Amino acid sequence: MRLAPQSAIAPISTAPEPHRFWDRQNDWLFAGVGASRVLDFTSTLNTRRRGLNEGLLTNRIVDNHPLFLGIEAGAAGASIGLSYWFHRTGHHRLERWVSIVHMGIATGGALRNYTLKSQQD
What we know:
The chain is 65% helix and 0% strand. The chain is built from four helices and no strands.
């Protein structure tokens, strides 16, 4: 068996390849961020209906549904903006991880909201 000369072997690159920002993977990640923010919104409203207090925002903000919805949308927009900044600066792995971490935190918070005991319990 004859081995190829060392110069003929292509170097293995672990860095992600540059890509379009609005590619299929980011589309799915951003949709996931939006879905996790909707889940957080509905779980927080459910928590308030059960007589519990919101932990991160004031109850006055959460009880103003249009304002609270705007904050949720702003959080999703900020996540996409941060991903775009990482994309433009060539940090493509971080670009993807922003959405993954955001989805995890928002979904985890929503699940926590649904597991809280109501005041009546």
